[in-house]
Structures are given as structure tokens and as C-alpha cells.
Automatic annotation (TrEMBL):
Residues 217-357 form the O-antigen ligase-related domain. The keyword Membrane applies. The keyword Transcription does not apply. Pfam families: Wzy_C. The chain crosses the membrane at residues 57-76, 96-113, 119-135, 147-167, 187-204, 211-229, 249-269, 344-364, 389-415. InterPro entries: O-antigen_ligase-rel_domated, WaaL-like. It is found in: Membrane. Keywords: Membrane, Transmembrane, Transmembrane helix. This is O-antigen polymerase family protein. It is a multi-pass membrane protein. GO terms for cellular component: membrane.
């Protein structure tokens, strides 16, 4: 019989957290190791739109073929347990909620036919998110996805710079655009996100990969400057500040010196459009943005009024121009069918309060996923440091304030990348936790009578017995 002051003997098992962590670490092996290639292919087709550089390829429907091929291969290669884990992901649930709200607003829209292109794009948006969640949660695969996204983005930027399409604006003049889905402002938004990923790639790689990152970064910066996008300038400036604050001292100094060279060079040798439009940010009250009914401020004011008229059910996906055109006609200004030029106003007006709530929740979840990878860790079970992911999300969220991107592929790529980064960090923490020494039990002895514990960790020193 044990003495009264003896502690009860504990079972020979690790704590529940260690058991769950070990199971999570083992799940990494269930994923197909080449899934990052499928995610990269969809990113190139849907987000970067690289295949739009050759118009005859549109007849092959590359988006349909890409989604079908990627999902089919993953269905064959990826076990059901990995699929179940991906389909239960909280970011995917938020994405599905947002897509359901979009669909529910279609029957109540002003023009159902105008909503159908958005509804038809939802399966591709969901497929992009699912495929990114099926990437093996390892930092090597996360880095491969981002690195190849940067490289293909650089190829797209090089083609855009060589085969330039020029459009003229009321402020500044000529601006670089594309022949495909992206106008000047959309192109600047994508270039801003990709430049931040390229900076991160250049900071963590060496040799040929670093040279490739720097080359792509240079080309994308040239294209970015030629777009003359004021919203892109604001987004890149804010996101770059976020990226700088997430670095250690050495990298902070290196990036500041690089920016100190690149920004004056862009201002000196860049096109006149870039300088004129950037300087107009400091005199925005005199710009058409404030003074014209086609300016963003007036459009946003009218949009808030439309939302107040129907806060629960919106006017329908992609129907903001219909509602605004009718309002302007009543004001005696016919012929103006303007988009919202603000993702958040667009979501409020087109899909109502539940739609804007779903959109903001997606961005909130993405920010929470990317934040643990933002600051460099000096201690802890994992040292995964990827501040460029949060910076890219900030860039999109800022540029979205000036663009109608409520159903954009850039949105779903940004939140999917953040979700994948969170899964990679969780897997690494699970592996580090499961590798810790486990407590072991010791047989009862006379030591128990003196109030000492019945077991100690295997690595703990046992004090000598005193008679």
C-alpha cells in the first residue's frame, strides 16, 4: 500500500495534444507530392491569364480543361482522407458561404442575364481554392507554388511590355493595358501582388532562383510603372511598408536600400503618365474623382444609397451598372453604365449585407492565417517566416478599394494561399511537437513515501536517493 502523501500513478501515454499533433504530422504523407503543380497550372490559367497572350487558344477553353485536368488528377492521386481534411477547411467553408450568397441573390437581381457570367465563374473559383488546399502542407511545396507563380507572372509581364496595348486616360495620358481580361488598374493590382511575392522569393533563395526572382521583379516593376495606376501605387506602398516591418534588421536595411534605388529610377526614367497621376494623389480634391458624376467618390456615395434601399437582398451579381445607369437616367444623365470601382461597395450593393459579411470574413480569416508567418521567430517549434504572403493580401485588400474585384480570381488566390500557409505551419508545428520526449512512468518505490512524483520525463535528471 502506498503512503498517504504518495501521488497517484499516471498512465504511460503522451498528452492528447501530442497525439493530435502526431496524427496531423502523419497526414502530410497522404497528400500527393506533385499537387503543387496542379495548383500552379490553375494559377497560371485563371489568375495570371497567361494563355490569353495567344488569342486562338481561347477556342480550346483552357479554363475548363485546366480545372477538369487538375481536379481529375487529384481525385486519382489524393486519398480520401486528404480530401476530407481539405473540404472541412474553415477558409473553404467561408468561400462556399460567400458563393452561396452570390447564387441566392441571382433570382432577385435586376438583370438575371447579367449575373450569369459571375455564376458561371464560381465553379472555377471554388476549384482554385480546393486545389490549393490539396497541396502537400510542406514549406517546399508552398515555396514552389509561389516561386513558379512569380516566374510565370514575369513571363506575362515581359509579353505585356513587348506587345503593349495603350489606352488613354483623362489624367496623364497613355497607360499600359492588356488585350485580355485585365485593364490598366487590374494589371497594376496583379503586378503589385506578384512583386511582393518576388521580393520574398529573392530574399529566401540563392543562385539561379534568386536571379530569376530579381529578373521577374524588374520586368513586373516596369510594367507596374507603365500602368500609371494610382490605386496600384497606394496598394504597393502600403503593402511594401507591411513587408518591411516583417523583416529582421539585416533584410530591412537591404530592402530599404533597394527601394532607395528603384523608386528614384522609376520617377526619373518612368513615363510622364506615372509622374502626373502619382502627383495628382496630393491634389485629389481637384480631380475628376471628386468633381464628376463618373468619379469614384460620387459613385461610392450613390452605391451606399443603393445599399440603404435594399440592404438584405442586393441588386444581383454584376448588376451595379444596371442600377447606377437607371439612377443616372432619372437624374438626366443617360448613357452612363458605371461599375462600383470599389470591391466592398460592389459587394454591399450587389449581394447585400450577407454578401459583404462573407467577403469580409474571408479576408479576416486569410489575415489570421497569414499573420503567424509574418514576424521572424527566434524560438519556438517552427521558424516558418513568409511575410510576403500577408503583404500580398494587404496589397489586394487595398487595391480592391479602387476596383470591382468582388468575384475576382485574385481574391480567391490570395485567400487560398493564406490558407495553404496556415496548413503548412500547422503541419510543421505538429511534427515538432510529436518529436518532443514523452513522459514515462516509473515503478512505485520508497521515493513515493517522501512526496516525490511517480514519474518524470525521460530527459529529466533524477536526484540521488537520500536515506
Amino acid at each position: 500500500m502506498l503512503p498517504a502523501n504518495a501521488q497517484p500513478r499516471q498512465a504511460l501515454r503522451p498528452p492528447p495534444v501530442a497525439i493530435a499533433s502526431a496524427a496531423a504530422a502523419a497526414d502530410v504523407k497522404l497528400y500527393w507530392e506533385k499537387a503543387w503543380m496542379a495548383a500552379t497550372a490553375l494559377t497560371v490559367i485563371l489568375v495570371i491569364r497567361l494563355l490569353e497572350v495567344y488569342a486562338p487558344l481561347a477556342a480550346l477553353h483552357p479554363a475548363v480543361l485546366g480545372v477538369f485536368a487538375s481536379v481529375s488528377v487529384l481525385l486519382v492521386r489524393t486519398p480520401g482522407k486528404a480530401w476530407n481534411t481539405a473540404l472541412r477547411d474553415r477558409q473553404l467553408r467561408a468561400t462556399l458561404f460567400y458563393c452561396v450568397i452570390i447564387c441566392l441573390n441571382v433570382p432577385f437581381g435586376l438583370w438575371r442575364g447579367g449575373s450569369m457570367p459571375t455564376v458561371n465563374a464560381l465553379p472555377y473559383l471554388i476549384a482554385l481554392t480546393v486545389v490549393m488546399l490539396l497541396v502537400q502542407p510542406k514549406r517546399q511545396d508552398l515555396d514552389r507554388l509561389m516561386n513558379w507563380t512569380v516566374i510565370f507572372g514575369g513571363v506575362f509581364a515581359a509579353y505585356t511590355a513587348l506587345i503593349a496595348r495603350t489606352r488613354f486616360d483623362v489624367v496623364g495620358g497613355a497607360r499600359l493595358s492588356t488585350y485580355g481580361s485585365y485593364d490598366s488598374n487590374d494589371l497594376a493590382s496583379m503586378m503589385s501582388m506578384l512583386m511582393l511575392l518576388a521580393i520574398g522569393m529573392a530574399m529566401r533563395t540563392r543562385g539561379r532562383w534568386r536571379l530569376a526572382a530579381l529578373g521577374c521583379l524588374t520586368i513586373m516593376f516596369v510594367v507596374f510603372v507603365k500602368t500609371g495606376s494610382r490605386g496600384g501605387v497606394v496598394a504597393f506602398a502600403l503593402a511594401t511598408s507591411v513587408l518591411l516591418l516583417g523583416q529582421n534588421i539585416r533584410r530591412f536595411v537591404v530592402l530599404v536600400l533597394a527601394l532607395g534605388i528603384a523608386l528614384p529610377a522609376a520617377w526619373t526614367f518612368g513615363p510622364r503618365t506615372f509622374r502626373v497621376r502619382t502627383m495628382s494623389l496630393f491634389t485629389i480634391e481637384q480631380d475628376y474623382t471628386y468633381t464628376s458624376h463618373q468619379g469614384r467618390i460620387e459613385i461610392w456615395k450613390r452605391g451606399l444609397g443603393y445599399f440603404a434601399e435594399s440592404p438584405i437582398l442586393g441588386v444581383g451579381p454584376n448588376n451595379f451598372p444596371v442600377r447606377d445607369g437607371a439612377a443616372l437616367t432619372q437624374m438626366g444623365i443617360p448613357g452612363s453604365w458605371l461599375t462600383a470601382h470599389n470591391t466592398y461597395v460592389q459587394a454591399m450593393v450587389e449581394v447585400g449585407i450577407f454578401g459583404i459579411g462573407g467577403l469580409l470574413y474571408m479576408l479576416y480569416r486569410a489575415a489570421r492565417d497569414a499573420l503567424p508567418l509574418y514576424r521572424p521567430r527566434s524560438r519556438g517549434p517552427t521558424k516558418l517566416h513568409r511575410p510576403e504572403i500577408l503583404a500580398a493580401l494587404i496589397s489586394f485588400a487595398t487595391a480592391a478599394f479602387f476596383l470591382s474585384h468582388a468575384y475576382s480570381y485574385l481574391l480567391f488566390y490570395a485567400v487560398g494561399l493564406c490558407a495553404l500557409a496556415r496548413r503548412v505551419r500547422a503541419a510543421e508545428m505538429a511534427g515538432a511537437t510529436s518529436a518532443l520526449p514523452r513522459p514515462v512512468a516509473q515503478a512505485p518505490s520508497r521515493v513515493l513515501g517522501r512526496g516525490r512524483p511517480a514519474f518524470r520525463p525521460r530527459h529529466a535528471a533524477i536526484p540521488p536517493h537520500r536515506p
